[in-house]
Structures are given as structure tokens and as C-alpha cells.
Q: What sequence folds into this?
């Protein structure tokens, strides 16, 4: 712009330069047409039927929920038909909507709308047509998008000291930390208001999910950048598939379409749904589902996760209580065999997990690409209660063939719970049964030995109510907690419980016949208050805890393979209970959560402000129950260890490491010692400095004081001398009673 | 070692004080009396009866002959330690919250409350002249600014007095002219205690802002800071080991509504120079109002809102304690 100059004014108005003002206030021409759409493939009609067509058009728009067409907003060009000599339409018309949003919605909703059998409407924005008509005819190759290298999402695993990370959510802060054993955690990344409600790791630890009003964001990599986001307004719950390929989100708000968010991923078929399945890699919406599947649409209680995934992300399913199990297939998102499995009365189902070895095998197989080998089938287990004369039943079924492998009938069942061992070797069905009078309850453990021929079922009867059950991960032992305390189930009580350990007794062949292995009791601990079981992810160690009680906060650290002395080793061979050792009993006031780190080396017990107000914070222990660190943090909310993916080492490599453990550990021990000394050196130096400073200051002050005292004519500070103190010991003997006895000889 | 529990008061303790030799322990409480105890076994020697209101403060002179007490009955009384006779009574308009003898025992100060329209003030009491003539001159009065004085103490050689204010400020006053010499504002809440080091060259303050601090007397320069997680009522410097003992707990008003666990009614030991917490002593079931350390550093006592005084004699370990890196220096 030319600067205004009083000496150089233009001679007349014409000479004035208005270009800058014109540019500023120019009316954008195209914008006016944003609310106009072009509807093509409309029936060709004559003048007389024009009104009728307009009426139908308005009706279609109204019923589709797009909104009213502007009064007189339809215009249809006519032309003279040479054959009939009448005015006929050209097969398209222009519609002017009230707003641009309505126009957008109309395009979205009514494009490809079948008006009748032969007329499928094609709707476009007027501006689009303008745009496309101006496109060049010849093909221009699109510029190749530059490959932007992503950060390595699993970089944290390359930590030379193999430390683990955890996320700490406190107040409005979310902090990612390294666990450093006895040193305070090292902060890696911290962000204010990172999430609006809570945070969650993906199952292999690659992503950190944060919750926002608009949806979910996933973060990761060494710099913790946003990797992808999923739009789902009001999202409350999420669930990843086991291999992090898919994400399920649930919101309490049904999806609405006319919110006009640009780039909204929702289409007409998504309207009203609350569940969405996403592809985590591409961020694409794969399919949405309604929250409730019951036909009467009573919003049944939300059980999360709503979809249960098979271990390889291949299938997922959900149960419609009392009716059916629906198994879907990825990535097609269609029902397996095109229909749900109808099971009258079904209450719950579970997928069978598989062992690491099986996973490896499967991988090898997929590498071979030999289609002839039959793919391993997945197994689901489900149970149905008693209906009429039919007894309750537990069924194992293979997927996708839907063949029933095994069923077992059960009687007088109140409730069942399916517990798979993590390798899928055993399925324990915890059956709560009522006695004949239906007054008291007791439990049966029905253990299906899935790997054996015909799947034998072993029954363990428990006299009392079983309140907790847990398999040792990858192991053949389990722990149950039972109670017969009448106060059980009442609020604000801490019932007395018993803890029972079981193991699989692989008895040696007796008289040459292979006897069937049985689950046998290791030990029963009575008079406990324990109500929760936390196995180390590596097995062997287990924490028995009293959670969410008003008066008890015990943590017991147990070792199931304790072999301290040779004597004990010998005893363990005879008696399995001998290697069961209580390592320590600790207490964490107001403990609400217990989390093992993925390696089973450390465990964190925490007390969250979501449940308590007093003494909130967390404590880090090692697996033996030695306290490493303790923090009381105001507004502490949540703490989660970052999970680790499966190890990339083969079994042979692992064995090799285990064999040479001593050599490896030497290196680490040296490193530890070095780190220790370097830290303490710093600390020593710091302390020395403080001491020296203090001593120097004292010297100065004392001499000042002495000087001043001398000036005042007083002796220097009268240092108390021990010689001046006289200790007087006074013995006072008091005769309490005196009797005289004459002893006859 | 097991502490000795002194159960002589029927209401909460307000201040406890050892005499110079440390064989006697004087305690003031809200039950209107001052008690004196043998510190080594906890036997009660006697009671000073006469106040008709809660006794807020007590101090004894270096010869252990005179005792000064201040009370909510708007008086400060001078007692004969041996006989328990009241030698003199000063009357004020408001409650006396703190009394302290000067280093040479010739004078004392009395901090009076801001109440009923009267300004909070620090009165300078002439002990000598009172004893000689029973003189009834109006004592010289200093009016601390800008907020009222909570606690006060004499500097060495009677150079000045140091006042801890309600808003967390500390200031140095010339007691002859009433002039403010210097001031600092290191705490953010009420200063609850101010105790001098044995030679009065530095002093410790405790505050409701959950911290205790150490200052150089002459300059009011901050030396050290000890940050805890609960409001503090008292801080005391230990001889022998370089420690400072702090105590407090949540407000007495809220004690009944929360469990003892959260009250944090512990005496905490901090390393005076390194500013690190080294230990805690539990025991009281109410906030700790006052802490005093035996002048020879071999025991300490704490008085609580619960009405008890706990006298702790240190174990051998206490005297052996040292950081490994200072071992060669010799503790």
C-alpha cells in the first residue's frame, strides 16, 4: 500500500487507489452457492406433472431428515421436445436448501437414493459440478506423498538396563516414568491435561490411549507424538484387540449425523450406534454396532469388554444374554457363517487362550503359505443355566466350524464363571451351587483338561463360597479364596477367609499303568482376611491382598517354589507344601490397586483419589515384598505399567540365556555397583559442601560473638564443661516389711 | 528407650521448657497451672497455682531461681522456683502468649494478644528493678507492624529482640526504642515457635505453612529450610548431634474428624545441616504443641494437645548416628 502523503494528494477522486479496500471487502462469489445441490437422474416429466414431482421431492427430503427445501427453491430447466412439441424436463433439477450444512447432509444421505426402481438419485453440490467441469481432461499424475518416517514405536524396549515404564496420572498431569528401583522414577515425558478422564495402554504397550470429549487419541514413540486419533463423541470405554490391530470404543451417546463435523467418519448406517470397531493402523472405521442387542431394546447393563477377541485378532464375538453368541470375522467384520450361534439361555462365553508355542507355530504356518494344512481352530467355552427340565451346561465349541467338542451337564447351579489358564491347557468352571434347601451356597470347581484326549473333567468340591480364583500364569497351579463367614457380601465388613493352593500332581506310573494326573491340595491358610489374588505375570510368586476393606490392608508375598536349603529341597519332593513360603507380610494403608510390572520383578500398590481421600499415593515393592520406594502424592489418580510385547527370542535363545545367567548378571551387577557409587559420590560431595559451608559460617559467627562479648566485658561464651557437673547418687533404702522367724534346728 | 509419660495436666500443653542444667522441666498448660518435673525420671516436683486462665507460656531464668509465666487471664507472673510463691504480677489488657528471659536475666519480654480492641504488643519487663523495689512502672511497649507478634525471643547480649509474626514474617526490633531494625518474610503462614540456638547466634522457626527454617540472628538471613507435610507447631535445635526436631500435626479442631494415621502427630528429626529427614518418634494422639531439648542433648520432651508430656531419653544409637561419609571426621 502506498503511504499516505499530505503533499502528494491525488488530483481527483478517480485517481484514488481503492484496490486494497476492494480486495479486502470483495464478496466471495462462489460461496453463495454452497446451499445449492444438483439432483440428477430425476424422472423426465412434462409440464403438467412438474408440481407432482416437486411435491415428491420435498417429501423425500423431509423423511430423510435433511430439512425443508427453501420455498420456491426447486428449479428445473425445461426444453422443447422436438418429437412431441411439448415442454419436458431434462432429467435434473436444482434445489436450494436453507443452509450449506443441510446441503451437505442431503448429499451424504440422499445420494444413490432409490426414488423408484429405475430412478436412483444422484446428488452433487452445485459448486462441485462447477469445479469438476473445469478440470483438465488430461491425466496429471498425482505427486507422490513424501514418505515421512515414523518413530520406532517400540523404542522403549531397547533400554540398555531393560527397565520398565509406567504412566502416572495425577491431578491434570500425566507423566511417563522409568522405574529405577531404589532411585526415584525418572521422568520421560510430562503433559498437562493430556487426557480428560483416564489413560490406558494398548495390550502390547505400543500406544497410550487418552480420552477426550471428541474421541480417543493414541500416542507413542520416543517423543510421545500423537500417532492417530479416532473420532467418537463422548467415548467412555475402549478395548484393544490382543494384537493391537483393532480398537473397540463405546460411548454413552448414540452417534448422530447432523452435527455437521467436517470429515466425520460416520455414515447413515452408523446412526444411533454406540459401539465402533476401528482399524488402529489406518484409523478407519470398520463397523459400528448398537450397544444393546436385546430385541426389546432395554439398554442392558454394560459389561465391558463387550466384544471378546480371539488371541490372534481373527475373531471377535459378543453374547446376547439368553439368546445367542455372535462371532464376527476380521477384517471383513461379517458374522462367521453369516449367522449367530443360537444358544438358548446362554449367559457368558470365553475364548480359549493359546500358549506362546502355539502362537509361534501359527506364525510359521502363515509364513509357509501352504494352504493345504488345516488352520487351527479356535475354541470358545460358554455356559447355560437350567431351563425347564434341561440341566445347566458348559459347552466347548470350535470356531469357525461351530462343532461342539465337549459338553458337561451341571445341577443345582446358581452361577458359573469360566476361568481359562493362560496357555489354554485347562478351563476351570467355578460353579456356585446351592444346597437342596437353597439356603446356603457352596462351590464346585470343574476342571476341563483341554489338551487331553476326550477332554476329561475333574471335579473339586469346596464346602464354602469361593470368592476368588486365579490360575498361575502359564502354570499348573491355582489359588482360591473361600469364606463361610456370614458377614460376607455385606458392606463395610471384612469377612474371615481361607486361602487354598492347588497343584497338578503328575503321579508316576504305578504298576506300569499311567494314572491320570489330578489336582491336589498344597496347603490351606485359615483365618485370613485376604480377598484378592495377584499372580506375578511370570508365575511362581503370588500376592494375597486385602483390598478395599475398612480395617485391613495386608499384603502377603508368597513364593511357591521356595528352595532355600538342600533340606527344604528334599522336603519339597515329598510334600509340595514345603516349598510354599511366605516371604513377607506388608501393609499399605488404604490400598486400592495392585499392579505387577510386566516382568514380574516389581509390583506397585497404589491408593487412588478416585476411591479415597486419605494417604493417596503409591509404593513400589520388589517381588519379595521389600519396599523400594513410597510416595504420598496429592491428587494421585492412576498408575499403569507399560505392557511388553512377546519376546522375540526363540526358546533356544532363552534357554541359552538362562544357562549363562551368571555371566550376564555379573555385567549387570557391576553396572549397578557403578551407578550406585556415582550417585552416592555426587551425594557425598553435596553433603560435604553443605557441612563445610556450615562449619565456615559457624566459625565466623562464633568469632564475631566472642569479639562482641569481649567488648561488652563479658567472658567468652560459657561453654558448659562436663567437669563442672557433679553427679550425686543418692541411695534411699526403704524397709517395706520386716518379719522375724526363728528357725528351729 | 521407652518414653516417660507425664500425666500431670488435665488439658493440652502449651509450652515446655528445661532449665539451664536440664534437671528440671517446666510445663504450661491450658488447665491454669504450671508444673515442674524432674526430667530424668518424670517425678513431679510441684505446681505453681495462681493463674485463673489457660497458661500460654513459661520461662525460667539461667540460675533456675525465677520462673515467668504468661496466661489468658491477662497477667504475667513471676514465681520463686523453689517455694512456688508468686513474687510479682504484671497486668495487661489482653492475654500473654509468650514470655522470655533475656540472656543475662535482667529483663524479660511478654508478647500480648491482639484482642478486644487492643493492639498486640511486646512488653519489656525489668526483672531486677521489680525484685528490688516492687516497682510498678508501666513496662516499655513495642507495637509490632504490620501484623501482630506470635512469638519472640532475645538476641545475645540483649542486642535486639526477634519477633515472629502472624503472617509468617520475622523481624528484629530495638527493644530500647521500639524501632524495627530489619525484617524478612520467609513463611507464608503463622509462625508458631521461635527457639534460639544455645549461643543465640541463630534460631529456628516453625510455621503452619508446613515448614521449619533456620536463620542467622544478626542478619535474619535464611540458613536452612525443612519442608514437611503437616502444619508445624514447634521446632527445637539439638546439641551434640546436628539435628532439629520439629513437631505438629493437623489443626486441633479437625482431630476428631480424621483418623490418627493421617494426623501426623510425630516428632520428626531432620539433619540440621543437610536438610534431610532422619527419623520420627510417634506417640502422641493429638497434635504436638511444644518440643524442648535437654541442654546436654541427651533427651528431649514433647507436649501435646492430648495433655501429655513425653520425655524421651535417646538410645546409644542416636549418639552413634552419622552419615557414612563423615565417619572419619568423627561424630
A:
Amino acid at each position: 500500500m502506498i503511504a499516505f502523503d499530505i503533499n502528494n494528494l491525488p488530483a481527483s477522486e478517480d485517481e484514488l487507489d481503492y484496490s486494497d479496500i476492494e480486495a479486502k471487502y470483495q464478496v466471495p462469489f462462489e460461496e453463495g452457492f454452497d446451499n445449492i445441490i444438483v439432483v440428477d437422474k430425476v424422472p423426465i416429466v412434462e409440464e403438467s406433472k412438474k408440481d407432482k414431482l416437486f411435491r415428491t421431492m420435498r417429501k423425500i427430503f423431509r423423511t430423510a431428515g435433511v430439512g425443508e427445501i427453501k420455498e420456491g427453491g426447486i428449479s428445473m430447466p425445461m426444453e422443447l421436445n422436438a418429437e412431441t412439441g411439448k415442454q419436458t424436463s431434462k432429467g435434473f433439477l436444482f434445489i436450494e436448501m436453507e443452509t450449506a450444512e443441510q446441503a451437505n447432509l442431503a448429499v451424504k444421505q440422499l445420494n444413490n437414493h432409490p426414488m423408484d426402481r429405475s430412478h436412483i438419485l444422484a446428488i452433487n453440490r452445485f459448486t462441485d459440478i462447477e469445479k469438476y467441469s473445469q478440470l483438465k481432461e488430461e491425466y496429471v499424475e498425482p505427486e507422490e506423498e513424501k514418505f515421512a518416517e515414523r518413530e520406532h514405536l517400540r523404542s522403549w524396549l531397547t533400554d540398555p538396563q531393560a527397565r520398565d515404564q509406567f504412566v502416572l496420572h495425577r491431578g491434570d498431569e500425566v507423566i511417563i516414568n522409568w522405574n529405577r528401583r531404589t532411585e526415584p522414577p525418572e521422568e520421560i515425558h510430562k503433559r498437562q491435561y493430556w487426557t480428560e478422564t483416564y489413560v490406558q495402554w494398548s495390550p502390547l504397550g505400543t500406544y497410550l490411549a487418552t480420552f477426550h470429549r471428541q474421541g480417543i487419541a493414541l500416542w507413542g514413540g520416543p517423543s510421545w507424538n500423537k500417532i492417530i486419533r479416532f473420532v467418537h463423541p463422548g467415548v467412555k470405554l475402549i478395548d484393544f484387540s490382543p494384537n493391537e490391530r483393532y480398537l473397540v470404543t463405546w460411548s454413552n451417546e448414540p452417534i448422530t449425523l447432523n452435527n455437521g463435523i467436517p470429515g466425520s467418519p460416520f455414515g447413515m448406517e452408523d446412526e444411533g450406534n454406540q459401539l465402533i470397531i476401528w482399524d488402529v493402523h489406518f484409523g478407519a472405521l470398520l463397523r459400528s454396532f448398537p450397544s444393546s442387542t436385546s430385541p426389546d431394546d432395554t439398554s442392558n447393563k454394560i459389561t465391558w469388554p463387550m466384544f471378546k477377541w480371539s488371541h490372534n485378532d481373527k475373531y471377535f464375538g459378543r453374547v446376547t444374554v439368553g439368546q445367542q453368541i455372535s462371532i464376527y470375522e476380521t477384517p471383513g467384520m461379517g458374522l462367521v457363517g453369516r449367522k449367530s450361534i443360537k444358544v438358548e439361555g446362554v449367559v457368558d462365553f470365553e475364548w480359549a487362550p493359546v500358549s506362546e508355542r502355539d502362537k509361534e507355530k501359527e506364525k510359521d504356518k502363515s509364513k509357509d503359505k501352504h494352504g493345504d494344512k488345516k488352520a487351527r481352530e479356535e475354541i470358545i467355552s460358554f455356559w447355560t443355566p437350567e431351563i425347564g427340565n434341561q440341566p445347566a451346561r458348559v459347552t466347548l465349541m470350535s470356531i469357525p466350524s461351530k462343532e461342539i467338542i465337549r459338553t458337561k451337564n451341571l445341577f443345582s447351579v446358581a452361577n458359573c464363571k469360566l476361568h481359562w489358564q493362560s496357555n489354554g491347557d485347562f478351563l476351570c468352571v467355578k460353579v456356585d451351587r446351592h444346597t437342596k434347601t437353597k439356603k446356603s451356597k457352596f462351590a464346585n470347581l470343574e476342571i476341563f483338561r483341554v489338551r487331553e484326549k476326550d477332554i476329561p473333567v475333574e471335579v473339586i468340591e469346596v464346602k464354602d463360597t469361593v470368592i476368588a480364583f486365579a490360575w498361575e500364569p502359564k502354570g499348573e497351579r491355582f489359588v482360591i479364596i473361600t469364606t463361610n463367614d456370614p458377614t460376607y457380601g455385606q458392606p463395610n465388613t471384612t469377612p474371615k477367609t481361607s486361602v487354598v493352593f492347588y497343584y497338578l500332581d503328575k503321579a508316576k506310573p504305578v504298576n506300569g499303568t499311567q494314572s491320570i494326573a489330578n489336582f491336589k491340595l498344597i496347603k490351606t491358610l485359615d483365618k485370613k482376611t485376604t480377598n484378592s489374588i495377584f499372580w506375578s505375570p511370570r508365575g511362581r510368586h503370588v500376592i494375597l491382598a486385602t483390598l478395599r476393606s475398612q480395617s485391613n490392608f495386608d499384603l502377603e508375598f508368597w513364593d511357591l517354589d521356595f528352595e532355600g536349603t538342600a533340606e527344604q529341597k528334599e522336603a519339597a519332593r515329598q510334600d509340595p507344601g514345603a516349598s510354599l513360603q511366605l516371604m513377607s507380610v506388608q501393609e499399605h494403608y488404604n490400598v486400592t490397586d495392585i499392579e505387577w510390572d510386566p516382568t514380574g520383578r516389581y509390583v506397585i500398590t497404589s491408593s487412588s483419589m478416585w476411591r479415597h481421600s486419605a494417604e493417596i499415593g503409591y509404593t513400589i515393592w520388589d517381588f519379595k515384598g521389600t519396599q523400594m520406594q513410597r510416595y504420598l502424592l496429592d491428587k494421585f489418580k492412576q498408575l499403569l505399567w507399560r505392557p511388553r510385547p512377546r519376546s522375540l527370542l526363540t526358546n533356544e535363545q532363552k534357554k541359552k540365556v538362562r544357562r549363562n545367567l551368571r555371566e550376564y548378571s555379573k555385567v549387570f551387577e557391576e553396572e549397578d555397583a557403578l551407578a550406585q557409587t556415582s550417585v552416592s559420590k555426587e551425594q557425598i560431595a553435596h553433603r560435604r559442601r553443605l557441612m563445610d559451608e556450615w562449619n565456615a559460617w559457624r566459625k565466623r559467627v562464633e568469632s564475631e560473638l566472642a569479639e562482641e562479648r569481649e567488648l561488652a566485658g563479658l567472658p567468652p561464651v560459657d561453654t558448659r564443661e562436663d567437669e563442672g557437673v557433679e553427679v550425686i547418687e543418692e541411695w534411699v533404702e526403704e524397709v517395706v516389711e520386716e518379719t522375724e522367724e526363728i528357725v528351729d534346728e | 528407650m521407652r518414653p516417660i509419660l507425664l500425666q500431670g495436666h488435665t488439658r493440652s500443653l502449651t509450652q515446655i521448657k528445661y532449665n539451664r542444667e536440664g534437671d528440671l522441666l517446666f510445663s504450661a498448660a491450658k488447665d491454669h497451672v504450671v508444673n515442674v518435673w524432674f526430667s530424668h525420671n518424670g517425678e513431679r516436683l510441684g505446681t505453681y497455682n495462681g493463674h485463673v486462665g489457660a497458661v500460654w507460656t513459661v520461662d525460667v531464668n539461667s540460675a533456675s531461681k525465677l520462673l515467668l509465666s504468661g496466661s489468658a487471664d491477662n497477667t504475667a507472673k513471676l514465681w520463686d522456683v523453689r517455694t512456688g510463691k508468686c513474687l510479682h504480677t504484671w497486668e495487661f489488657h489482653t492475654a500473654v502468649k509468650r514470655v522470655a528471659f533475656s540472656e543475662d536475666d535482667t529483663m524479660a519480654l511478654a508478647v500480648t494478644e491482639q484482642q478486644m480492641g487492643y493492639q498486640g504488643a511486646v512488653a519489656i519487663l525489668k526483672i531486677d528493678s521489680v525484685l528490688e523495689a516492687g516497682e510498678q512502672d508501666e513496662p516499655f511497649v513495642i507495637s509490632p507492624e504490620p501484623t501482630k507478634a506470635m512469638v519472640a525471643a532475645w538476641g545475645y547480649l540483649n542486642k535486639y529482640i526477634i519477633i515472629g509474626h502472624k503472617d509468617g514474617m520475622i523481624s528484629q526490633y530495638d527493644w530500647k526504642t521500639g524501632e524495627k531494625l530489619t525484617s524478612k518474610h520467609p513463611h507464608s503462614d503463622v509462625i508458631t515457635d521461635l527457639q534460639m540456638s544455645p549461643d543465640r547466634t541463630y534460631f529456628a522457626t516453625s510455621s503452619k505453612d508446613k515448614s521449619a527454617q533456620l536463620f542467622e540472628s544478626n542478619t535474619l538471613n535464611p540458613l536452612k529450610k525443612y519442608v514437611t507435610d503437616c502444619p508445624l507447631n514447634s521446632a527445637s535445635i539439638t546439641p551434640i548431634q546436628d539435628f532439629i526436631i520439629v513437631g505438629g500435626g493437623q489443626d486441633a479442631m479437625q482431630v476428631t474428624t480424621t483418623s490418627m494415621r493421617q494426623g501426623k502427630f510425630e516428632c520428626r528429626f531432620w539433619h540440621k545441616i543437610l536438610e534431610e529427614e532422619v527419623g520420627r518418634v510417634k506417640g502422641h494422639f493429638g497434635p504436638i504443641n511444644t518440643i524442648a531439648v535437654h541442654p546436654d542433648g541427651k533427651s528431649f520432651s514433647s507436649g501435646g494437645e492430648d495433655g501429655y508430656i513425653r520425655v524421651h531419653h535417646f538410645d546409644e544409637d542416636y549418639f552413634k548416628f552419622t552419615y557414612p561419609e563423615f565417619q572419619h571426621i568423627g561424630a
Observations:
- Chain A has a mean pLDDT of 83.
- Chain A has eight helices and 42 strands.
- Residues 661-711 of chain A form the longest helix (51 residues).
- Chain A touches chain B through 22 residues (CB under 8 Å).
